[in-house]
Structure formats: C-alpha cells, structure tokens
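Data deposition worksheet. Section B asks for the primary sequence of the deposited chain exactly as it was used as input, without tags or linkers unless they were present during the calculation. Section C holds the resulting structure in token form. Section D is free text for depositor observations; keep each observation to a single sentence. Incomplete worksheets are returned to the depositor.
Section A, Depositor: J.P.
Section B:
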Amino acid sequence: MTNERINELMLELFIFETTQLVEQLEQILITTEKNASFTTEQINEIFRIMHTIKGSSAMMLFNNIAALAHALEDLFFFLREEKPREVNFSEIMDLVFNGLDFINVELLKLTNGDKVDGEATRLIEQLHGYLLLLKGDQLVQENLQSESDSFIPQQFYISKSKQSGTEDQFENAFQATIYFEENCGMENLRAFGVVNELEGQLEEFYHLPQNIEDDESISEILTEGFRLFIKTNHSDEEVRDLLQQTMFLKELTLKGIDDLETAFCPFRNELTPTELLGGDSLNSLMTLDQAEKDPTNGKPAASAQNHQSIINVSVAKLDKLMDLVGEMVIAEAMVTQNPDLKGLDLQNFQKAARQLNKITTELQDIVMSVRMVPLAGTFQKMNRTVRDMCKKLNKEVSLKLIGEETEVDKNIIEHIADPLMHLIRNSIDHGIEEPHIREAKGKSRSGTIVLEAKNAGSDVLVSIRDDGQGFNKDKILAKAFEHNLLPPNFEELSNKEIYQLIFLPGFSTNESVTEFSGRGVGMDVVSSNISAVGGSVTADSIPEEGASITLKIPLTLAIIDGMTVKVGNARYTIPTISVKESFKPKLSDIIVDPDQREMIMVRGHCYPVLRLHQFYRVKTEIIELIKGMIVMVEQEGKTLCLFVDELVGQQQVVVKALPTYIKTLKEIPGLAGCTLLGDGSISLILDIPGLISY
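Section C:
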C-alpha cells in the first residue's frame, strides 16, 4: 500500500470519526443544557472526546483543531478535578458550541478538499480567559502557558522508519499488547495512530506487526493484538496511562521485560522484530502466546470474538453497486421481454426467467437495505438549531422527536437535512410566540415542535408540527395577490390550497419578516429541494393552535415500481404508488363544461381529464376517449385522469436523470426522469404532482 493511499485512508477515517465525536458531543451538550448542570459522567465524556479529537488532529497535522481541542480539554479537566460550585453555565455552553462550530467548518473544508486554515486563536484566548476566571489565581496564566508549551504538535503524518539504536541507559522495558474494539475497522490505520501518538513521548519502542502500512497486517492485529516493545525511563503507571488513551481500545496488557540488552539487541542490529526475545528463528518467537495458537503449526487459531460482523463501506462504492444492480434489472427486462420471443412456447425459459427475476429482486432489496440509514442523526441535529434560535429570539421551545429509527436512502438524507432545518427555523421564528404572549393566550410559556417520521408504503412521511399561532389565511392571500400569484379561481380555494401558496416561487419577500406573521419566507426553497428527490410538501394549520408541514419523500431514488403506458409511438411510466385505478371510459360518463374542459364521472364524482397526446404534442390515431384508456392518479388528495392509448404493463424501472437539454425546457413540465425498457426503447417517467398542479 502506497503512502499516498495510506494518507487518503487516514484522512477519511479522521473526518468520519471526528464528525461522529462532534455530533455525539453536541447531543451531550443539548441534554446538559436542558438540565442546566453537568453530571460527573458528562464531564468525563466531554473530556474524553476532546482528548481524542486533540490527539487525532495533532497526528494529522491539523494543529489549529488540535490546539482548540486542547484548550477545551483544559477547561473540562479543571471542571472534573476541582468541581467548582459557581460557574456561568450559559457561558460555558456558548464557548463549547463556538468551538464545535469551528471544528465543523474545518471538517467541511477537508471534505471539500480545501486547506484547513481556520484561525482559532480568539476562541482559545476566550477559553483560557474563562478558565483563568474560574481558578481566580494570577498564577494560572503561567500554568496555562506551560501547558500550551507542553503541547507540541506532531510533525509527521505516518509512522517513521525504524531509527538506529542508542547507547542511552533506560530504567524500564515493557511489552504492551493493544486489542482494539470489535468491528472498529481499519485496525492497521489505528495502529498507525498509536505509533504516531507515542513518537516523541517514549524514548525507544518497536512494534509487531512491523509492516502496519500493509492491509495484510490487520489479521495479525485481530488475532495477536498490536504489540509494542518499549524501553523508557517512564514508570509502569505512566506508560499505562499513555496507552490507555488509544482510540477504540478494548483491552491493554502491559508487562515488564527483565533482560533489557538481550531483548533489544536484535533491533539495534537491524534484525527483524520477530527475533525480539533472542530466539534463533521466527518459530521461537511465535510461541509468545502459545495458548491462543494452533499447537500443530504455530499459526494463530481462529477466534470467534475477533470476527468482524460490521465493516465501513464507501458511499461511492454503494452508489456504483446500485448502478450495477439497476443495469442488471434493465438487462433482465431486455432478455425476458425480447420481441423475438413473442409467440413462442418456451416453458423452460419462462421457468428460468422467473427464477432470475426472484434472484434479481432479492439482490435489489438487499442492496437497497444496505444503503438505508436511520433519520436519527438528521433529527438529532435539529436540537442544535432549536437551541440557537431560542437563544437568539429569547423564546422557549422544546423539540420532540418521534420515529427517529425510520430509515431512508443515504442520498435522500443528504437532500432533506437543509429543508428540515429551514422548516424548524421558520416554526420558531414565525410560528411560536414569545413566552409572555403565549401566557396571555392561556398557553404554556414554552412552545413545542414535534418532528415525526413514519413509513407509508414506498414513501416516508416527515411532519413538522408546532403549537404556535398557525398560518394567517388572509395575510397569505394578500401576499399572494401582491405578487400576482393567485390562480384565476382563488375564491374556490380550500384552506389547505391557500396554505399551499406559501411554497410558490416568488412568494418570499425581502421585507422584514415581522410584517408577515404567517410563514412563507423562503419556503419555495424547501419545496424545490424536496421535489428534486421526487417528494412533495403540504401544509395545514388551525389558527392559534398551530401549523404542520408534511414532507412526503421516497425511500429510494434508484428503482421504482411503474406502470408503462403507450401514447402514439411514445412510452410513459407512471409511478405505481400514484395510480389509483385504470379503466375504459363510457361515453355517458364524459362531461364537457362551458370552458370546454373535459371531465369524467366516476362513482358520482367528477374528475378532470388530461390528454397526454395533447399535453406533450404526440401524434396518435386514438383521439376519442372511449377508444383509449383512463389512468386515474392521485397525489395529496388531488385526483387527475390521464388519457392514454393503452396500458403496456407494470414492472420495476431504473430511474435515470433527464438530459440537461430537456431539464432546461420549462415548457415541458411533468417529467421526473426516464428509464430504459426491456425492448430497448426509452420511457419518460411522469411527475404526477407536477401534472396535477400544472
């Protein structure tokens, strides 16, 4: 494995683990702030997290992050050891949150491939200044300076090559064995971290396996542990404390070595580390932990507890795997629906095709399940948004999370995080009243926002509900009228349809938001982001009781169940989830209103008819409604009847993005993507919400 690849893997590992630690710390702080006090366990956990971030950042040469983490570590070390009674709890929270914001910004730079160049000096000075006030001693400044001087950033990225021996006399020699937590992954890179952390802190040490830059060393680390041979003037306790700081440490054994010269002579003579104990061959050393080995061949015996049941996989690899599964679905359709097979009696082929379809479907389900991640992480981040907004606006709001375990595709999560944050901010800013106003209305001082997720077939419903003042229907209509956004029949609009106006592009305004007590500022951004992943947004409200906004998002973007229809020589695919029914219309059920709009009567209800051949200007010989087929589609309580030539069939289709030149043609609405059918033809996937609202 090349050094460049090692560095890349270590960087990915650093970003992943530091992000997790920061998110974990944010949740601890949110919980702590609600209780208005630290518990001993919380202080210890925060101290441990900052110590870990400090060490890993220094190892990676991100010294600005390491220095800030060191300052935060100092603060919580004092809180842990001295347990001061009078502390400004709010100020501590602000300092730590500001520090986490800085680290998040630097992590985002790393993710985007930019240079980590943030200046943390001001934040560090604030932390040192507050710690100085806590201690109340002028000598603290000197102590802080000495502590800062003692923190010398590591000046290397990965392990240095073995150095030559030295004639210095050392008091102690130890053999340490480190066992990492099960399923932590990348054990050799974690061993790199240990080596780099120890450089400059221990006088002389060597490690087994020696070639930890090679992935093959992982199996040895899993079975034998990561072994260190140390020669130092430090005591047993000091060495143990130093090694106890190892990330993902499961177990540590430390024992002394009596014969120093014999033990370390092979290393100084540039012999292999396996000759450490003075043996004449590799086999003599391989008896170090004979009880855990296979006595017949000296090789490490398999250990069930070292078996990895979970591994980390790159999202890019999962995307590629999903693409390949999609291509396989298309290839299967091309084989089983090949026009050359029409009219042939191929019973064995049909049997094999059914088996192939079964395997393909199962494989697709497994790949999709691998990509599914719970919404818990995204939901938990909203706690920070609520905390910051309440502090800024002097409001009291509690956030209640329901259905955090609901899972959606990884790519979907990335698209809904920003809309959720925007909706939460709007609920606090425009929906929840100030405490004294709520009390005057007979409400509790503290408002409540409920963020809930639940499955609904192949979709997930995410709702944001608050108990604030709700939408103001009259002001929404006035604002829509001012911006010429009202439809011609606005007098007939229901309350829900009026509330839906807030999502129209252009509804937002640059004026002060206090001039508009209902929500709507920038809500078109939410709608467009959710529509980009094939979802929809609806709003509802009860005046003075609250408002709710519901996001309906698909579980996955890759493969959907669809009904393919034919219009002339064109093919269109309608998502099955939107299809209510299909039928051949009767002449007696067709109605034409005075404006020449066609409608059809179905079980006593009239529904509008949309002729796809007219809408998309497709030539066809089937013009009369009674000669074609009606496909009734429904979305968010609205129904539309699509007139097509005939139904082709139902099948799973792979969603492909529309070409750029089609996306830019605004006069062609109602298209969500395209797919390749079994006969090689292309079918356009219809965007049902877009057609209904057109």
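Section D:
The CA atoms of residues 405 and 639 lie 32 Å apart.
Residues 137-142, 147-167, 269-308, 509-521 have pLDDT under 50 and may be disordered.
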